[in-house]
Specification:
Two copies of one chain form a homodimer.
Chain A lengths: L4 H9 L6 H13 L4 H14 L3 H13 L14 E5 L7 H11 L4 E5 L9 H6 L10 H11 L1 E5 L6 H12 L6 H15 L3 E8 L8 H17 L3 E8 L7 E2 L1 H12 L5 H17 L6 H13 L2 H12 L4 H5 L9 E6 L4 E6 L1 H13 L13 E4 L6 E2 L4 E7 L4 H9 L1 E4 L9 E5 L1
Parallel strand pairs in A: 1-4, 2-3, 4-5
Antiparallel strand pairs in A: 5-13, 6-9, 7-11, 8-10, 8-12, 9-11
Helix pairs in contact in A: 1-3, 2-4, 4-9, 4-10, 5-11, 5-12, 5-14, 9-10, 12-13
Chain lengths: 434, 434
């Protein structure tokens, strides 16, 4: 069957909606090599500018899923759930959440990505644990999931390959930032993982891709509706990213902070958001009937140390040094640590989270391009939050460096706006889509 | 110098205007092979949907020109002029006009195209003359132009190669019908030919690409302003194409009709439009100071037989059989000729010129795709015009066929709408842009 790409292009160019069959044929033709990239790139631009409606987005999502393998864990006889975050600065929630939910008896088959640009990636954080393997065979994933209830891996080439191919083309044609493309990319990957319920954490604010609440809410609603149209349970939280999440930003530092939370300590916002997301997952997959009981169960799993035990079990199962992770100062430390200080007294009016994320990339803790290598030791410890009052000379953040770099310390200090006006601090949870 | 195509794409996607430098770099990069087709196709779609303003269109035109050879005839010491038509059904004007203007002492270096779809092409018409060569070396063009004042050839690969490459990409990405792309494509080719003055004949009506007067007028104005911005003289006529031009539609038939006009006969509309365009060319290049003297000079060249002599000279110079062209029935005739007749008495309310053009393609006189071969003998002689009254059984058109084909005859008859209302017949010249 040949697909009439010129007709499809003309229709989208003129603002017409595609049939699901046309979307399927276009993507299948692209993956199969019959439709050349120069036609698909023209389509990407037309769809970017004219938009794709819900039916078209569903069809695109299905086409991406159909291009590769899909997992099915139903024979393991337990409910399963997963979470996806749209990415932010200091977002280490997955490291705590996956073992926590597994400790509640729910399977968590989590496939994560690497960091690119100002946001970190879960895979990079896990790999800062010496020995930790993020690439497992499907058989190894299944056996670990059955035995332990949790597995955290990177995306193999066999999962939604069309999404990878399409993303590469979007990247070079400046068609990345389109809601329908983003929805289909995220949902297809999460669907292919095979979890019964998917919870989305849509970040909103100056450290997130979505800068305003309206676009974040719309994205959250579309992620949920598209996932449901494919027959899976879904919910979403829109959460604040107008300041980094927790204190640690940087790979090994974030693992340490995750360990703190798993052991009952750590920053309040990280703990609260993890429990909220865990409750949504437990409720979403049917393990708990209502929000109150789901939240209580998650709290018990954290406070009892069951989540921490599960984390250690996962680290060991995936080849990581579990003993080292549990020791204070077990994780590698940066050789140079300087304090970024307030130049004047006042109130923290704003924190440039994007700037802090970019700084971590610059000092070697993230990637400007895919090929960059990461130094797991470097990063930031954010010591002040929005609305805090500070004296002149107060420590705003610690800067963990591989080598002396005064400009990095100055950069960090500049990301804190100290003034005389008390800011309106957004709630951590801005909206729930259930 | 590398060009940041992603930035250029993002800017056009967001509705921003490009700098001339960015347009130049994009096209030069494409022609040079540094910018891949999948980025250019995304740009074509973005520019199609967001538009290009006059400055961007000028820059695109210059970039297309710069990609290849440009002719310069200034050393021949005479003014030069050319005409371009946007294409219609039965438009054989160039065959008469070029020798006529040359007979007035003005150089006419005319580069023409082949027909595609419902409109014919000047090259195909010329090639229905046995022996006529449409591919000459630049040296042969120059020497013929110097000696005879007129040369009619096809576009060599060295003239605006970027336009050919871009057109092929527009064709497969459904981005052909954009005014700025059309303007830059036409003007770049005409500019590269090297004529001092260019006159555009923008066809308007059901046999033309421009169906309504407003879009035709806008195209005419933009062709003129873009040509002037490049430092050449320009004018345009918007002319009616709500019925075929003249009687003959089809290659050899149109050559015969052109010969009739050159010898002082032929259809009135063909004669009038040719003289109007000749006057614009003569005035445009400065050979005549005002419209009245230009028109008088063109009329004299036609009536004196000087234009006809020039035509015969050109045919002979380019290898064609000039003696044959001058003989009644010298040109090859189709073996089967049938009359398409009116089913009822009444007034010709409308003529489906597009349908008649499509019919000629179907019976072998045009191309549905570039590879199709043409039968020069086939075509139509249109015997009735808009507003004519007819009896039942009156001949509407002769259908010249390579073989028996009743459906073609019925098709021709169906293109004439016979009713009881006298139509408003548009003027031949709808507007002058001077």
């Amino acid at each position: 069957v040949t697909v009439d790409v010129r007709r499809i292009l003309r229709e989208k160019r003129n603002g017409r909606a595609h049939t699901p069959e046309d979307v399927a044929a276009l993507i299948a033709g692209y993956v199969g090599g019959e439709v050349p990239d120069y036609q698909v790139s023209a389509w990407l631009m037309a769809a970017f500018l004219r938009g794709l409606d819900e039916t078209e987005t569903d069809a695109l999502t299905r086409a991406l899923i159909r291009s590769g393998r899909t997992f099915d864990w139903s024979d393991l006889g337990r409910p399963s759930a997963d979470k996806h975050s749209t990415g932010g600065v200091g977002d280490k929630i997955s490291l705590i959440l996956a073992p926590l939910v597994a400790a509640c008896g729910v399977l968590v088959p989590m496939v994560s990505g690497r960091g690119l640009g100002h946001t970190g990636g879960t895979l990079d954080k896990l790999e800062s644990i010496p020995g930790f393997r993020t690439h497992l065979s499907p058989e190894a994933m299944r056996s670990q999931l059955d035995a332990l209830g949790v597995v955290m891996v990177g995306q193999g080439a066999d999962l939604t390959p069309a999404d990878g191919k399409l993303y590469a083309l979007r990247d070079v044609t400046s068609t990345v930032e389109n809601e329908s493309f983003i929805v289909s990319s995220i949902v297809s990957k999460k669907f292919a993982e095979g979890a019964d319920a998917i919870v989305y954490d849509v970040k909103c604010g100056n450290g997130a891709f979505m800068k305003n609440a309206e676009s974040a809410r719309r994205l959250a609603r579309r992620l949920v509706s598209t996932t449901r149209s494919l027959g899976r349970k879904a919910a979403a939280l829109v959460t604040d990213m107008s300041q980094p999440l927790g204190e640690a930003v940087g790979n090994a530092l974030e693992v340490r902070e995750s360990v703190d939370v798993l052991r009952g300590g750590g920053p309040e916002d990280v703990r609260v958001l993890t429990l909220e997301l865990a409750a949504s997952m437990l409720q979403g997959c049917g393990a708990e009937a209502d929000r109150a009981s789901a939240l209580a169960r998650a709290q018990r799993a954290l406070e009892s140390g069951a989540a921490w035990e599960k984390f250690l079990g996962m680290v060991a199962a995936q080849g990581g040094d579990a003993a080292l992770v549990g020791r204070p100062d077990g994780m590698a430390r940066a050789p140079v640590v300087h304090d970024a200080k307030a130049e004047r007294a006042g109130t923290i009016e704003a924190i440039d989270s994007f700037g802090l994320g970019e700084l971590v990339v610059k000092i070697g803790g993230g990637r400007a391009s895919k090929e960059d290598r990461i130094d797991p030791r470097v990063g930031l410890m954010i010591r002040r939050r929005l609305g805090d009052t500070v004296e002149a000379g107060a420590v705003l953040a610690e800067v963990h460096l591989a080598a002396e770099d005064r400009s990095a310390v100055e950069w960090a200090a500049r990301c804190f706006q100290v003034g005389s006006t008390a800011p309106t601090v957004p709630s951590l949870i801005l909206e729930r889509v259930e």
